[in-house]
Give the backbone structure.
Amino acid sequence: MISVEKALETVLNSSQKFGVEEIPFLKSVGRILKEEIRADRDFPPFNRVSMDGIVIDYNQFKNGQRSFKVAGIQAAGSEQISLKNIENCIEVMTGAVLPNNANTVIRYEDVTIENGFATINVDELNDGQNVHDKGKDGKVGDLLIAENTIISGAEIGVLATVGKSIVKVAKQPKVMIVSTGDELVGVEEVPLEHQIRRSNVFTLVSLLERLKISSETAHITDDKPVLKSKIESYLEQYDVLLFSGAVSKGKYDFLPEVFDELGVEKLFHKVAQRPGKPFWFGRKASFSMSEQDAFQNEKRQTIVFGFPGNPISTFVNCLAYFYPWYYKSLDLKVEEETAILADDVTFKPNLDYFLQVKLSYRFGHLIAAPITGNGSGDLASLVNADAFIQLPSDKVGFKKGEVFPIIRYR
Amino acid sequence: MISVEKALETVLNSSQKFGVEEIPFLKSVGRILKEEIRADRDFPPFNRVSMDGIVIDYNQFKNGQRSFKVAGIQAAGSEQISLKNIENCIEVMTGAVLPNNANTVIRYEDVTIENGFATINVDELNDGQNVHDKGKDGKVGDLLIAENTIISGAEIGVLATVGKSIVKVAKQPKVMIVSTGDELVGVEEVPLEHQIRRSNVFTLVSLLERLKISSETAHITDDKPVLKSKIESYLEQYDVLLFSGAVSKGKYDFLPEVFDELGVEKLFHKVAQRPGKPFWFGRKASFSMSEQDAFQNEKRQTIVFGFPGNPISTFVNCLAYFYPWYYKSLDLKVEEETAILADDVTFKPNLDYFLQVKLSYRFGHLIAAPITGNGSGDLASLVNADAFIQLPSDKVGFKKGEVFPIIRYR
């Protein structure tokens, strides 16, 4: 049995690259950017009018002129026009190019326009006011979005602005999620007395969907030859296999021996944590013989996460190991979150304790209230909580007000 | 001009229901549950073995018996068998039904099995140990997930367990996102000197995608008759129209008058905030004549959000007004988040200031560092931040360490 810290280190050391693909920018939310996005022009790309009103030559105002003949309109989206006579003005709209020979915009609120003349009703103007200078926000070539950024709505706006209709993002791993266990029936079925419905694979599908990974699922009966032949084929086809169940000491817990017989290298089995202790982790290096890379015969590996079958064990191990493995593989930096324990907790076993907590915000403090017992058990406690708080194995008593790392799942 | 508080109240008062639809449970992540989910059986549904090992009658152990003939195997997923002779034992697997006449499970680690006999190697057992009693986690009929819960991976597992392969969720509003402005060209186009690319509609599409709303987009030129005829048809077809631009004082800012002419009731125009001040908000009540409800002639309304065209204005107003309107409409309670200001901020105008901030966690404290100036301007500042912090209009100086509400966008 190894520590959580060592297990995580081992998992992270098995991270790998899946390459890059190009996709339409509007489909890229949640994906990880694999190129630098730089300004294709200055921002703003021209001296940009930033208020609706009139534009004049400031010197005329300074010299006492207050009434200006309206000599034209500069609309947003129109080619730049010129103020040919500096005793005149031009009406200008937000977003328009600043007309030639003019420099200072006075908003409509401060002007009266009558009979083709605009009269300025304020006594002070700033030279060049209400003009957003070309290049003020950024110069052509400036870095706007760094590689390895996770794409959100903010990045979508920038991608559109610089014309990146197609964007390079990290390819996602191909993932197969497998349940085992003869007690499991389908969600649509009515279980017999001794049966229950499959649920962990669907939980895993949802947790992977949060990372924008589309996964496939399969169920295999507790029959060793069947398990072996199916897993052999999955090892050929997928980058990652996630299992739920059949990794403990039961007579039908065939997975560890099947993995061994199929040449999957065991990196660890059992971690000093609760829940999720019988976690099996390994990898198989192989030569890909798929058509697209048959010529380069590229070396690849399949990573195997064998999660224990208890619903909370599967859930927490996916968050505590698969997620960091994925982030590391795709070069995404994720900041650790911490929260303040809302109640005293005692936990005697020499194990890291992943305790479900309900989060709340009080005056900028993130408070984690343990969700425990009261007979509601596994199912309800996951629904009633938002996160796990990780209490380290080297202590027994954890005090209200102490701070520990958390893993959110909402 | 009205206050942010009053504007938000007005927006929330225009919330509405969109009904309920039934969808496959695996598609329901991020949607809002519109039924109560109750346990269809006890949990566990039977006295469930929770360790791999053997099961005995505790009284035999208490009376000194240590060696038990292995009389059978109770696998997970098999019908319950019986311990016919209480001097024997049965091998049992995690997840199996507890055999009849037996009550206490000893894990394999504490047993030696040789020649068909299991010898117990420990001196103490608890009566009934390693059995998870029927109904301990919940009773048939117990409420597992409340109505109006947002569905995450945790809920997916529960839905699967209770056999809800089809689940009732809130229908989403039908949303059309419209950009206006003759200076705008498509993302794939190379803008002329005086043009820029459309970006706000795509930002809005992404922000709505976060809420699992699929929206449609359109661009209309700054031509009043065209605007009027298109908007008239959108008012018939959609629950919500989001506009970006053309709500200020410009000569081609036709939207307010078009809305007026089309009978859209203005609820407010201009909010005391920066950015996002020229925000126009209204609604049009109408009778739906669509086929599916032609018979009931149901009263419906279309809500119109006219966001200012500046990218950050559109962005922050979508988060500050559309999001809460959506949550209220679908009866989702969302907790307000607060963060601690990392630097002093001075802001003189008598406006609520939505300031972009970068969030970080320090010892359970959520710290908000303002992202300002340095010439990086609008685009970069949205990318470099995670949230807006809302600084109220009634103060000028905001001190490091003070706590204010935040709106996250990652």
About this structure: Chain A has four domains: 4-18+173-329, 22-40+141-170, 48-132, 337-408. The mean pLDDT of chain A is 93. Chain A touches chain B through 110 residues (CB under 8 Å). Chain A is about 20% helix and 30% strand.
